[in-house]
Amino acid sequence: MKNKVIAAAVTLSMLLPAGTSHVGAAKSSAKMLKSEMPIEVLYNARKIVFDVKPKMVDGTVLVPVRYVSEKLQATVTKQGSTILVVIGDKKIELTIGSKVADINGKIVTLPQPAIVENGRTLVPIRVISEGLGVSVRWDEVARFVWVGNEDVPKVEDVAELVDIKPFLPYYKGFEAFLDPYRTGKPATKAYVLNYSDFPVIINESIYYRWELVKDADGNQYIKSTTTQGGAMGTGLTFLSKGYKLRDRLERSRYRESINAFRIHYYSIVYGSDLDSIGDTNYSNFKIENVNYIGIKDTVGMNPAPILVDNPFQ
């Protein structure tokens, strides 16, 4: 089995089009600009969708109390400026604008008061953890608030496995990507994800999130936060109507390792597109042109491509 995995890795590396290199649109030593990713809240490792986003106030993360409480099947009521959250024998009572809260009969001083934004009450995550007896953890690197368990699902458990036929036009001239192990039996299915399905596990690596960032020269990249080790991050492909498939390697000089996290960067505009696909207009390519972003990995030996509906359109 080990030999098969090694052979598979070699085969995947051979699928890179001629001329592909780490040379981008601009030969720059510019550093990546710091970006502050929006905070996401996950309940049992699945994202909670808010109409008012969580926020950081002087180092304290505040989250919309109703959304999170209702996920925990708690009852939330509001009378004037007083918020009451009840689940079983647990009760939280707090007042908007006050740092004092009654949590299960104990008076607690909060690091920040509850606030109201666009009709939603935001409270420090400490209120949820202490008041409702559920595990809550702030993840500084991924900027996730983990509520409940952190059992991230495998991609094959959340992605839709669909017929490959609608996607074949994207692979015209690049059919080798549909038979990465050169078996003579190309993929007949594809795994399709929405970005809201992140985080997911692909071959034991967790893909937490993607963000668009720029370096000091204004070049744009996808920032991919993962746990993926190895000498090089798994490549991406850009699938677009009216454009040839574009293959992207990790820009390894920008890679970051923070504890168990591996953060990889992929160029949007890539100078090698001139040689590999003959695009003389490569510098005008935009991420908005992309319909699907492919992750150049497979589920075991299954050749089905892993495609993510472009979240940057």
Description of the molecule:
- The protein has 313 residues and is mainly β.
- It is 12% helix and 35% strand.
- The chain contains five helices and 24 strands.
- It has helices at residues 2-14, 65-71, 125-132, 155-158, 273-276; strands at 40-43, 46-47, 55-57, 60-64, 75-79, 82-87, 90-95, 100-103, 106-109, 115-117, 120-124, 136-139, 144-147, 160-163, 189-193, 200-202, 205-214, 220-226, 236-239, 246-248, 256-258, 261-267, 292-295, 306-309.
- Strands 14-15-24-23-19-20 form a six-stranded mixed sheet. A five-stranded antiparallel sheet has the order 5-6-7-8-9, with helices on one face.
- A hairpin with a 2-residue loop joins strand 8 (100-103) and strand 9.
- The protein is elongated.
- It starts with a helix and ends with a strand.
- 31% of the residues are buried.
Task: Map the helices and strands.
Layout: H1 2-14, E1 40-43, E2 46-47, E3 55-57, E4 60-64, H2 65-71, E5 75-79, E6 82-87, E7 90-95, E8 100-103, E9 106-109, E10 115-117, E11 120-124, H3 125-132, E12 136-139, E13 144-147, H4 155-158, E14 160-163, E15 189-193, E16 200-202, E17 205-214, E18 220-226, E19 236-239, E20 246-248, E21 256-258, E22 261-267, H5 273-276, E23 292-295, E24 306-309
Parallel strand pairs: 1-13, 15-24
Antiparallel strand pairs: 1-2, 3-4, 4-11, 5-6, 6-7, 7-8, 8-9, 10-11, 12-13, 14-15, 16-17, 17-18, 18-22, 19-20, 19-23, 21-22, 23-24
